[in-house]
């Protein structure tokens, strides 16, 4: 009797399991995000001018502090201007220190030097890889009078896989910013 019950139970489980649909793994796919084509316009501040993406919203807190907001991408680029008063070494150390502070959470920081001798614009772009609070920092200077720093932040908890497409788009805007800086 006991054997019949076990066989019946196994038979019943076999029928129930056999009636379910087969499970297939999902095919590999990439998230398709479409960002607007970059169109740039000139912004002039008291100390320098630069090109900004027309999709961003420019605001200036004071003559030395400005923000480029990207509401569609849920991110902002915070930019600060400082006069160089014989303290270029300190300004450079502070800008590089900010990038190093993000290395605790980052998987890596890739520095990209920038040199435009013709217009006397020199700097560094730091691409941050990983779940850090900021996905990019930069500075540009003429090394005698002007010093500009910037940091990119998103309004969401850092998850590199999720924000990677937006970070790449905005990093290109930062590079355009750096390339277009002209001192007054």
Radius of gyration: 26 Å
Helical segment tally? 3
> Quaternary arrangement of the chains shown?
single chain
> How many strand segments?
10
Backbone structural class: alpha+beta
**Fraction of helical residues:** 25-40%
Described by strand count, sense and barrel closure, the largest sheet is: 7 strands, antiparallel
Strand order of the largest sheet: 3-4-5-9-8-7-6
Given the C-alpha coordinates, what overall shape results?
A: elongated
Our measurement of the CA-to-CA distance between the termini, rounded to an integer number of angstroms, reads 98 Å
Strand content: 35-45%
Give start-end ranges of low-pLDDT stretches: none
Series of H and E elements: HEEEEEHEEEEHE
Mean pLDDT: 87
Descriptive notes:
It is built from 3 helices and 10 strands; from the N terminus they run αβββββαββββαβ. The mean pLDDT is 87. It has 184 residues and is of the alpha+beta class. The chain is elongated. The chain is 28% helix and 39% strand. The strands form 2 sheets. It has a 7-stranded antiparallel sheet with strand order 3-4-5-9-8-7-6, sandwiched between helices.
